[in-house]
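I am still getting used to C-alpha cells and would like to learn alongside you. Would you supply a protein for us yourself, any chain you care to pick? Start from the sequence, derive the C-alpha cells from it, and show both lines together. Go ahead whenever you are ready, and we will take it from there.
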Amino acid sequence: MCMVYQRDQAIKNFKPEPYFELNAEILANQQKFVAKLDPYQRFKDEAGLMTFMRAKHVHKGSQDGLIKDVQKQGKKRASPQLFSLSSLQSAMNKRYHASASQTLAAIQSLYEAKLLSYPRTDCAYITDEEFDYLVANLTKYLGLVSKPVALTNTTPNKRYVDGKKVEEHYAIIMTKVVPTKEKLASLPISFCFMIILHNRKYSYPYSAAARACSACLAVTFSLTFKNGT
C-alpha cells in the first residue's frame, strides 16, 4: 500500500520540465529530413546546449556533413479497406477536393447507371459472391484506366471478403456491368477510376513495400546524427 501511495503522490506532484534537443535538418538529394543526435542527449537549458555545441565546434545554420552509413529496410503495411460511403468521400476530398455532397451525387449517378453498388453503405466488406465476379471482370475494369496488373493472388482475403460482416449492404464496388469508354465519357469518370483502382487491392494483403531509410550523418566531423529507427 505504501508503494502505491508513493507512486500516486509522485504522479500528482509531477511537473513537466522543459528540455532542449540538438537536431539536424538534413538536405540530401533534394530531400529534407530531421535527424537526432546519436547517441541521444537532452539538455536542461539553452546555455547547456550552447556550451556543448561550442565544445564540439558546431554552430547554428547551414554546414556541410558527411553521410557515413545508409540502411534501407522494407516495411509492409496493410492495403486500405474497400470503400464505404464515408471513406470514399474522404478519399475524393483528399485527391480532388470534392465535397461530401458532390461525391454522393456522383456515385449516386453511377449507381443509377448500374455501374456501382449501393452507395449509402457504412460497410467495408464484400461476400464471396462479389469477390468472384470482381476477379472475373478485373482485367476489363483495369482496361478502362490503362492500368494492367498481374494478379498473383485470387484467394479471398478476410480483410476485404467476409460475409459475416456484411449486413444489409456491402462495400462500394463496381457491378458486373462493365461500361464502355464512350459511356464513361458522360459519367463522373474520376470517381469510377478511383473505385476501380482501389478495388483491385482486395486480392493483396499488403500494399507495395515502403522503403524506410535510416541514415547516420557526421556534421563537421565531430557529431553524429541519425534518423529513422
Remarks:
- The radius of gyration is 27 Å.
